[in-house]
Write a structure and sequence with these properties.
- The complex is a heterodimer of chains A (292) and B (346).
- Chain A has 11 helices and 2 strands, in the order ααααββααααααα.
- Chain A is an all-alpha fold and 292 residues long.
- The radius of gyration of chain A is 19 Å and the shape is globular.
- The model of chain A has no long low-confidence stretch (mean pLDDT 88).
- The model of chain B has no long low-confidence stretch (mean pLDDT 89).
- Chain B starts with 9 loop residues before the first helix and ends in a 5-residue tail after the last helix.
- The chains are: A mainly alpha (292), B mainly alpha (346).
- At the A-B interface, α4, α9 and α11 of A face α6, α9, α11 and α13 of B.
């Protein structure tokens, strides 16, 4: 067994795992605050990537402004979706709300194909190409940079949750909506906030995923891996999303290398099934107790 | 209930059709269906076959999702199980097609029970995700099994009856129509029985149902089995209709299509499943026709057909859930109620 090779695979897996974690956090944010399972998270990520590519090819703004605008666009998308589709569904059967997000995913794919066409677009080349080494192990510079960015964003998110007023309001709403209301927290605004933050996180992840693997309307498939991540980590646990993201990223990389690309989804969904059988609430998720 | 129908016995109250007017229209409609392939052209018969297959499949999913409250995003994968079983039997064994369809349904029912086993432990959204996992795993099996033709899939000969080949859509129509009618009647009757009522009780509140003495695991698995049986038969019909079965024939979006048809039609009503299947199958075709009209004005309208279809598909799901959660069945009921007293109502 070649240990160096194994380390390199693991490192690249952890790199893409960081992106899974970031998108997983977008998912968990929405679930924590609004109890909505957002199956369109992969498509929101794709929209972010397309915002970026569209703005980048117009060559109007410098790179940093393009990134910022694409992320803001993701946030705006989140806000619009929350206000137009999710708010009217408040208090409905969770399965209906879940299906609304499925429909939303289809709409977003259609819109992207309508504007940019169904063919994949080569990602804009703004990432460094200088080889990057950790000790003797080579890591693709794109993946290393993505990992660093994702890590920074995640840390910023964690700090915001911990100390920022809005973050505290969000955690309070997640714990108990009624109590949060009576403490004077504007719960509908927290819902908006969660969707905006999630939209921004997904758009940011989309830019990174797009610049590694290319931008196409089928990018939403990434959302399936994210689904596995959040189930394994626990739907309402940010720490769970972080750890499970890295874990699933590493497993996907190992399975892809040693077994072949077609085994990636099989292995991750196998893990999902096992997880659902033994710990349906995930590694760190809250156990739901149902009473009559 | 209609004005002027007084029920004198319980049997009357439970009957599927309670007036002679309804029976008359139903028979007239069936005669129309039987006459359809003789008057319609090739294209419409083709569409009718597709609609029929989708009706069987959507009715199956309606049993599971609409009546038992278990969401499945693996329905297309179950159809694939049926289609592969039928194709394998037709190619390697050569048993008569009716037997193939039934075996296809039974094998799929077994697969459904297997997938349904987690349904006692997890439910709602978790179950939906578990069924996605099942679909992914089944797809992997189909794509990587040499016995099932790998990614190239299986090509099969047409069905034969008394040495007579059933190959063209206008011929396959005669298999699909009776199967579809039978499956609808079966499903409609199911919910007049103890089992069907148990399903509805589980949907409304599963813990209460258990307290009432309904064994949850048994009935949830039974629901999975029945629903998958329908999917398997629909998959078998699909195989006889297209006569080539590949792993890519039954993608995840096809499962979403069935769920969308159940929602758009109206969850938990037999009529809803039928209306949903017809509507969701016809909408893309209507869009195609509209695009055809627009081509003289916008020469490149055709290239927007596929994205517009995707958008309309998603928008239908969203709009129905937002504005008409009871689906087409509710619209149909409203229209009928309007005409009950028409034109004498003020």
């Amino acid at each position: 067994m070649d240990w160096l090779f194994l380390t390199e695979i693991l490192l690249s897996g952890l790199g893409s795992g960081a992106l899974l974690s970031l998108t997983g956090i977008a998912f968990v944010l929405i679930y924590k605050a609004t109890k909505v399972v957002n199956l369109a998270v992969g498509e929101m990520l794709m929209m972010g990537a397309y915002f970026f590519v569209g703005l980048f090819s117009s060559q109007v703004f410098p790179l940093w402004a393009t990134v910022a605008l694409a992320i803001l666009g993701g946030g705006l998308l989140g806000a619009v979706v929350e206000r137009a589709l999710i708010r009217p569904m408040l208090g409905e059967n969770p399965i209906s709300v879940f299906m609304v997000t499925v429909g939303l995913g289809s709409i977003l794919v259609g819109v992207v194909e309508f504007i940019w066409g169904a063919d994949p677009i080569a990602p804009p080349n703004f990432m460094p190409t200088k080889p990057f080494f950790i000790g003797p192990a080579y890591v693709s510079p794109k993946i290393a940079l993505s990992f660093a960015i994702a890590a920074v964003v995640i840390v910023v998110f964690l700090i915001l949750f911990r100390y920022w007023r809005g973050g505290v309001a969000l955690r309070a709403t997640a714990t108990d909506q009624g109590a949060a209301y009576s403490c004077g927290i504007n719960v509908p605004r927290v819902f908006s906030l969660a969707w905006i933050a999630a939209g921004m996180a997904a758009a940011g992840a989309g830019i990174l995923v797009g610049s590694i693997g290319g931008v196409s309307p089928t990018m939403g498939v990434f959302g399936l891996s994210v689904l596995v991540v959040v189930i394994v980590g626990g739907l309402d646990s940010i720490a769970g999303a972080l750890i499970a993201g890295l874990f699933i990223g590493a497993v996907e990389a190992l399975a892809g290398t040693y077994l072949g690309g077609e085994y990636k989804l099989l292995i991750t969904f196998g893990i999902l099934v096992v997880m659902l059988m033994i710990r349906p609430y995930g590694l760190f998720g809250t156990v739901e107790i149902e009473r009559l | 209930m209609r004005i002027g129908t007084a029920h004198e016995t319980y049997a009357q109250a439970e009957a599927l059709l309670d007036t002679n007017v309804q029976r008359f229209w139903l028979i007239a409609f069936l005669i129309l269906l039987a006459a359809f392939p003789f008057v319609a052209n090739q294209y419409w018969v083709y569409m009718a076959c597709l609609v029929g297959i989708h009706i069987v499949s959507v009715t199956g999913l309606n049993i599971l999702t609409g009546f038992t409250g278990l969401v499945s995003l693996g329905h297309a994968a179950f159809m694939a199980v049926g289609a592969y079983t039928v194709a394998t039997l037709e190619i390697r064994v050569g048993t008569p097609f009716i037997l193939n369809l039934i075996i296809g349904g039974l094998v799929t029912a077994l697969a459904g029970i297997l997938v349904g086993i987690p349904s006692l432990r997890v439910k709602g959204l978790y179950l939906a995700i578990a069924t996605i996992a099942a679909a992914v795993i089944l797809h992997f099996v189909f794509a990587n099994s040499a016995f099932l033709g790998g990614t190239r899939g299986l090509s099969m000969p047409p069905a034969t009856i008394f040495g007579y080949q059933i190959a063209r859509p206008s011929q396959v129509y005669w298999i699909i129509l009776p199967v579809a009618v039978l499956s609808i009647v079966g499903a409609a009757n199911l919910f007049r029985t103890r089992i069907g009522r148990a399903f509805i009780a589980i949907r409304d509140r599963d813990i209460s149902a258990e307290v009432l003495g309904i064994p949850l695991l048994r009935y949830k698995l039974l629901s999975f089995a029945l629903s998958s049986f329908y999917a398997g038969v629909a998959g078998g019909l699909w195989a006889y209709f297209f006569r080539v079965v590949t792993p890519e024939s039954f993608p995840l979006i096809y499962s979403i299509f069935f769920l969308a048809a159940v929602i758009v039609g109206g969850m938990g009503t037999i009529l809803g499943g039928i209306l949903g299947a017809v509507f969701m199958t016809m909408v893309p075709e209507v869009l195609k026709i509209v695009v055809g009209w627009m081509t003289p004005v916008f020469p490149n309208a055709v290239q927007f057909l596929s994205p517009v279809r995707t958008i309309v598909f998603g928008a239908l799901i969203v709009l129905f859930l937002l504005f008409e959660p009871q689906g087409l069945a509710e619209i149909w009921r409203r229209v009928r109620r309007f005409f009950h007293l028409w034109p004498f109502r003020k």
